[in-house]
Amino acid sequence: MRTWRAQRLGKLPPYLFVEIDRARAAAIEAGRDVIDFGVGDPDRPTPAFIVERMSAALRDASNHRYPLGRGKRAFRQCVAAFFQKRFGVALDPDREIAALLGSKEGIGHFSTAVLNPGDLALVPDPGYPVYISGAVFSEAPYHRMPLREERGFLPDLGAIPADVLRSAKLMWLNYPNNPTSACAPLSFFEEALAFARKHDLLIAQDAAYCETYYEAPPPSILQLPGAKERCVEFHSLSKTFNMTGWRAGFVAGNAEAVGALADVKSNLDSGLFGAIQDAVIEGLNHIDHPDVRGILGVYRERRDTLTAGLKKLGWAVNDPKATFYVWVRCPKGVASMDAAKRILAEANVVVIPGIGFGECGEGFIRFALTVETPRIREAVERIGRMKW
Ligand SMILES: *Cc1c(COP(=O)(O)O)cnc(C)c1O
Fold it and tell me: What's the CATH code, domain 8-45+290-384?
């Protein structure tokens, strides 16, 4: 009997969170009081003014038909205005911007749009798994760039082997970074762009956490002169507006690469629901609304509670300047999977083992700040009672 499952699915890296997922489900089933720092999914609702706009947009019959390929002109103009105001970057709404069904969708399909079989993709390790999924589905090889703590979790571009570079076409970057919460200064983007010019690479920078920051607003790689020759940037509305369930994002940058992705998409999907586009426009036009910026205050308080608590226990914590993740060194000598399993078994607290994001994530665990402050205090107390 032949197997119905395509072999390429077997080339995806193993999903290492199964055991933790299972243990979490069993703990909840058993009625244990679980505090879950696992999923990177905001716990608070979408700001009411955005929901209101969506509600009105639902009654607009023009939104009931197929949306246009790259998004409504008003959507793309709004993104262009946001980019101008936020980053001082001028974008052509017709050629350099396309709407996505969440940025994950665009990231996943981007490899199909730009890689030929055999073209290699450079991906960060630890990293968001979708960069690799996209490469695997396009039969493209990939090479992991280690992100090390001593380099501020920025890849050492000089360490990429010459034979890898010869077949490389695409480099993925992700700052502010998931899972390490590291930020890249514009000077690193400058170094990456110079490197890409030298080796004739396309850069795809994942900016999902660009609006989730506690200090200086993170830069866009498109701010660099000439960046549009070989860079695109993926943006998400999910984290900015607590709207992960809505599925909205956009890509901006190099017109040829944006156009290639739009062509792939027009063959697979029929665009982002018009009412969602209207709601996103409302959000982006009022990004300084207290209900939007207030989200950052909530995460800041949680971040301060968790980092102070863990430091008091003697843990080595990376203070996040952006994202809603805290990337923490495991107690000495404990593997990340063992640490996560023990914390769940003994403290009823769910954290993600770093190894699940790649080999270089070993030795770390990730906390997502999607838990209310009093519960964070409770979690720290429980972890504090453990003996390592
Ligand atoms: C959440 C996330 C995304 C994708 O978010 P969407 O909901 O698909 O827009 C992309 N990259 C990283 C690193 C993320 O954490």
Answer: 3.90.1150.10
Tell me which residue has tokens 């974008």: 91
Domains 8-45+290-384 and 48-285 agree in fold: no
Q: Which helix (H) or strand (E) holds 134?
A: helix 130-137
Cα of 277 to ligand 1 centre, how many Å? 18
- Count of CB atoms situated within 10 Å of the CB of 362: 16
Cα-to-centroid distance, 236 and ligand 1 (Å): 6
Residue 134 identity: G
pLDDT for 117-138, tens place per residue? 889 999 999 999 999 999 999 9
The number of beta carbons lying within 10 Å of the beta carbon of residue 230 is 18
Residue located nearest, by CA, to atom 1 of ligand 1: 208
Residue with tokens 């226990």: 313
Topology adopted by domain 48-285: Aspartate Aminotransferase; domain 2 (3.40.640)
* Tokens representing residue 121 in the block: 């993709």
CA–CA distance, 65 with 61 (Å, rounded to integer): 8
pLDDT in tens, 173-191: 999 999 999 999 999 999 9
Domain extents in the chain: 8-45+290-384, 48-285
